[in-house]
Amino acid sequence: MNKNKDVAGEEPSGALMADVARLAGVAISTVSRALANPGRVNEKTRAKINAAARQLGYTPNAMARGLRVGKSNIIMIILPGSLYYGVSQIIPQVLQSINKSLIQGGYNLMIANLDRDEISERHILDLAFGGSVRGAIILSSKLPEVDGRSLANSGLPIVSMLLDMSDAGLQSVVTNDREAVRDVTAELIRLGHRRFFYLAGPEGNYHDVERYAGVLEALEAAGLSDELVRRSGGHLDYQHGFDIGVQAADDFAQLTEKPTAVIATSDDMAISFVSCIQRGGLRIPDDLSVVSFEGSPVCEFSSPPLSTIEQPVEEMGRAAVDLLLDAIDQRQKTAEVRTVIRSRLILRESVAAPKS
Amino acid sequence: MNKNKDVAGEEPSGALMADVARLAGVAISTVSRALANPGRVNEKTRAKINAAARQLGYTPNAMARGLRVGKSNIIMIILPGSLYYGVSQIIPQVLQSINKSLIQGGYNLMIANLDRDEISERHILDLAFGGSVRGAIILSSKLPEVDGRSLANSGLPIVSMLLDMSDAGLQSVVTNDREAVRDVTAELIRLGHRRFFYLAGPEGNYHDVERYAGVLEALEAAGLSDELVRRSGGHLDYQHGFDIGVQAADDFAQLTEKPTAVIATSDDMAISFVSCIQRGGLRIPDDLSVVSFEGSPVCEFSSPPLSTIEQPVEEMGRAAVDLLLDAIDQRQKTAEVRTVIRSRLILRESVAAPKS
DNA sequence: CGGTTTTTAGCAAACGTTTGCCAAAAACCG
DNA sequence: CGGTTTTTGGCAAACGTTTGCTAAAAACCG
Questions:
Q1: Which residue's CA is nearest to the C1' of nucleotide D14?
Q2: Which residues of A touch B272 (CB under 8 A)?
Q3: CA A55 to each of CA B321, B343, B350: distance values in angstroms, whole numbers, following the listed order
Q4: Which residues 48-67 on chain B approach chain A with CB closer than 8 angstroms?
Q5: B97 CB within 8 Å of a chain A CB
Q6: Number of other CB atoms surrounding residue B255 within 10 Å
């Protein structure tokens, strides 16, 4: 916002609508209308205004517009505390997908990082209550609240991604964790596997509950006992996936009756587990089949190439933005609070029939 | 921004400063001063105001403040077109580091994605010229320009990260690409390697120029010919690292005189190259030593664990924010346009002395 | 051509906060 | 206690854009 009113000509200069009006010889409100409501302004007048705006490199001041209209053009995305894990590209994928869709809808994307401390929760609530943002997409997190303020009470349109909060009435875009893991477990059963090793995320975590339930459902559907599956992990969060996998390799070494198939609930766990197991002399998939969850690109170049359930992150991002923009525009496009976008199993060389 | 003026009491309600003033029995300007310039308001009055603000859950409207003060509290980060690669965690690391530092400085972080098309370039320039953002950090990209508007001419404080633009007068935070690659090449030479295979990023790209120059410097310092190094790649961008590595494995297979050491300029290239080479029967590091650049976490769990040069991304993010905030506050903290933060070589099992 | 209807431009106020200025109140000092 | 200085609260205008309303201009029609 360069206030340099003395510069005339083609120089970009942070011109105001008032400058455009002066140059075009019309009122400020006519400029506003010509740009935002062209049908309300005579074509000849409009041409004059557009030429003046172009000459001055006029760019509207979004703060002024937001204040007058009472609506910001910013959407915040609330991200979980730690933005990076091991090989996961979920955050970059989500950001790119969402940003692209938002820009097409005329919005800008702001990052709000939810560290689960007071400072970051207050930051998010300030954005919501101060009118700075027009809506929120929240990724794998509960809604923040502090000082008697809760995001749930802010009146802000919100869409949850990855974490199903439809029970609480929150529009949610999720993938079919349970079904996907059930199907891959069924595939392992079909191959002949009867002993399973499950590498768990944090106990009670939505994703872990869903994924483990998928394993149990597949066992039940095959008429098998749920005692055929052993758990490792449960204490660390997904961002410590490598550590979970390393510990799981130790746990595995302690088992007298060795499982023949590993169901890891993140690519990180699988990768570090496989690395440690192989250093102990075991071979994948000859001695042990391995599947994981997430679909990180590097799985294709693991040794051996890792079978994984790929989450449809970009599609989910687009769906989340669509739902959010509908909520902002108060369009009732859909009665579904819960939108499920299916994950896809990618079978690679890490899975084979057990030896016997 | 709920305009519900009829609700009194503890209910969070998007209250205005005018509401706080009414409840505290003072003027609006006194509320403003009590919150922003406490020394200008009597302690008793201030207590009344703070209590009223707390009771109403008052949150300042950043758009109003920004408009009046003439300064936004938003910083944009301009990210390269594709946000995700293979195993790189640079984007999440940068975002987390920068966001944390900005919040401490009272700023919010907005994403601007530079796709190198008109729409995204115009989007960035609108943010800059419209006063929506107070500064910019640009990551691995040149400054956008379109329609006679250039980010360089916007008057906006800008810091470049990863790409050295200090020649153009732009504050730049970079790492020592050249020196780091020179040192790792020198280490390979010290181990006895005399034939090298260099997996290149895009020809002419700043990073590739620097890293390849490092290789040549090490050869020269050891009195060796630069003909001892063969290049592969040069056509694809870093985000296609896996593809570069796959193609490099083909190129390697064509070489009659096999190099004994590979210098890959990204972890993705190294990982996919190693995967393909191993499937062809070669062993790492017995037949071929491998080093790469970037320091992605998964390198520790590769087979074998991959030696890599780790970039100090978080520290660079912090430095970039410091420089940007200094420029915004017009503090002349440093005369250095170029800030170099050193990368660190992590030697793992992928590097050994050549067989003979 | 004159009366009626539609289109168009512009005035003025709004949005929520900040800050210069002034006057009143409080504090200080001999 | 009175004069002087400092502190404090409040008025009013500013920020850049939008939009309701009105009046004037243009278009329409018999």
A1: B68
A2: 301
A3: 34, 47, 59
A4: 54, 57, 59-64, 66-67
A5: no
A6: 12
DSSP single-letter state for residue B288 = -
Contacts of A136 in chain B (CB under 8 A): none
- Which two tokens mark B8? 């009194």
Chain B segment 239-258 residues within 8 A of A by beta carbon are 242, 245
B residues 185..214 contacting A (CB < 8 A): none
**Rounded alpha-carbon distances, angstroms, from residue A220 to A185, A188, A199, A343, A354:** 11, 14, 19, 22, 20
Rounded, the Å distance between the CA of B267 and C1' of C2 is 85
- Which residues 287-306 of chain A have a CB under 7 Å from nucleic chain D? none
Q: From residue A15, how far is each of A4, A57, A58, A67 by CA, in Å?
A: 8, 7, 5, 19
Q: Hey, what are B347's tokens?
A: 């030697």
**Mind listing the domains of chain A with CATH numbers?**
17-60 (no CATH), 74-175+314-341 (3.40.50.2300), 177-310 (3.40.50.2300)
pLDDT tens series, chain B, 356 aa: 444 343 333 333 478 999 999 999 999 999 999 998 888 899 889 999 999 999 998 999 999 999 999 999 999 999 987 766 688 889 999 999 999 999 999 899 999 987 778 888 889 998 998 899 999 999 988 899 887 788 988 889 999 999 999 999 999 999 999 999 999 999 999 999 999 999 999 999 999 999 999 999 999 999 999 999 999 999 998 889 999 999 999 999 999 999 999 999 999 999 999 999 998 999 999 999 999 999 999 999 998 999 999 999 999 999 999 999 999 987 766 668 999 999 999 999 999 999 86
8 Å CB contact of A119 and B110:
no
Calculate the alpha carbon distances from B175 to A76, A106, A110, A174 in Å: 31, 36, 27, 39
Strands B145-146 and B149-150, bridge-based pairing: antiparallel
Which residues of chain B does A93 touch, with a Cβ-Cβ cutoff of 8 Å? Answer: 83-84
